[in-house]
Write a structure and sequence with these properties.
There is one protein chain. This protein is of the alpha+beta class. It has two domains: about 160 residues, no CATH class; about 140 residues, Alpha-Beta Plaits (2-Layer Sandwich). The chain is about 70% helix and about 10% strand. It has 13 helices and six strands. Strands 2-3-1-6 form a four-stranded antiparallel beta sheet, with helices on both faces. A hairpin with a 4-residue loop joins strand 2 and strand 3. The two termini are about 30 Å apart.
Length: about 300
């Protein structure tokens, strides 16, 4: 997820930089054409877009600030050029809704497009509303909104069906409990050993509050990488809570689970992060008792997890 957000931020940064260059090129073209009265606006907007580009590069600044600056620049430029366009009016009147849908979430973009409908059509019609243009504008607003709406629907469906946690490569809460219940039933029927290592990261919440999401993501990635290197492929690392993880070791004896716990603890202690220093992890081994039902075993896991968080 963090990687996807980083790619999206870089993509928007490239768009802002290209927009700044285009505005600067427009100002240069107007200068060469001798239309000096129209030069100040694109020249000033190119500086604003340069500021938006720099803001998008700064992780401390909210990404919406750069988007708002870009939207304001686009609206001002369209408002200046719209009354001058005698040809292809539908093309120019379609730019504002598309720009809003690219830079804003679907809800605010739709609301803004509907509120500004009279303004754009009045600018294009010299103060008069044209019914054909109005119909074209509203049709474009609805059709253009279908793309982000479908994307949001697909992302929601993916989040609902994805077994992995959205912040790391561990299994999500619901999938963890389903797979652990299945493994507990299988171990009981086949009389195979099963072990669960409960892990609590006390630094996780502190890292996010003091150093931001990047420090939190580094802690999560370090834990997942340490588990991946020291466990088998069919072992299951699941995220039970914000800072709680369950490592399910299938067909593993108590001595084998203790060895995995020791190696994992040593690996995390040797991992030093810039913000938090060595990673601190509280661990406890838990195994199902003879003839213990799954609900009872699950209750013990929850109780031990809570005790680790309270220590």
């Amino acid at each position: 997820m963090a990687e996807r957000q980083g790619r999206r931020r870089r993509l928007y940064t490239a768009w802002y930089a290209c927009a700044a260059l285009l505005l600067l090129g427009m100002a240069a073209w107007l200068y060469l054409m001798g239309d000096y009265s129209r030069i100040p606006l694109p020249a000033a907007l190119s500086l604003v877009m340069l500021a938006a580009t720099l803001l998008s590069l700064t992780r401390e600044a909210p990404p919406r600030v750069a988007a708002y600056l870009a939207l304001i620049c686009g609206y001002l430029l369209i408002a200046m050029e719209l009354p001058r366009q005698a040809a292809l009016p539908s093309l120019w009147v379609g730019l504002p809704p598309v720009l809003a849908l690219l830079l804003l979430p679907l809800g605010p973009a739709m609301l803004l497009n509907l509120l500004l409908t009279p303004a754009w059509l009045a600018l294009l019609g010299n103060g008069e509303l044209d019914q054909d243009l109005l119909l074209s504008y509203l049709t474009l607003v609805v059709i253009a909104a279908l793309v982000p709406w479908e994307q949001a629907r697909q992302h929601a469906l993916l989040r609902a069906t994805d077994p992995l946690d959205p912040e790391c490569s561990a299994v999500g809460h619901d999938s963890l409990h389903e797979r652990l219940a299945s493994e507990a039933e299988r171990a009981s029927l086949l009389e195979q050993p099963l072990a669960v290592i409960l892990i609590h990261l006390p630094q996780l919440e502190m890292a996010e509050e003091q150093f931001g999401p990047r420090a939190q993501q580094a802690l999560l990635d370090s834990l997942c990488q340490a588990v991946a290197k020291r466990c088998r492929e069919h072992d299951i690392l699941g995220r039970e809570g914000a800072a709680d993880f369950w490592l399910v070791l299938t067909d593993t004896t108590e001595s084998g689970a203790l060895l995995v716990e020791q190696r994992l603890r040593q690996a995390l202690e040797r991992t030093t992060l810039l913000e938090t220093g060595p990673i601190e992890a509280r661990m406890r081994l838990c195994r199902p008792r003879r003839a213990e039902s799954w609900p009872r075993f699950e209750q013990r896991l929850h109780a031990i997890t809570q005790s680790l968080a309270d220590d």
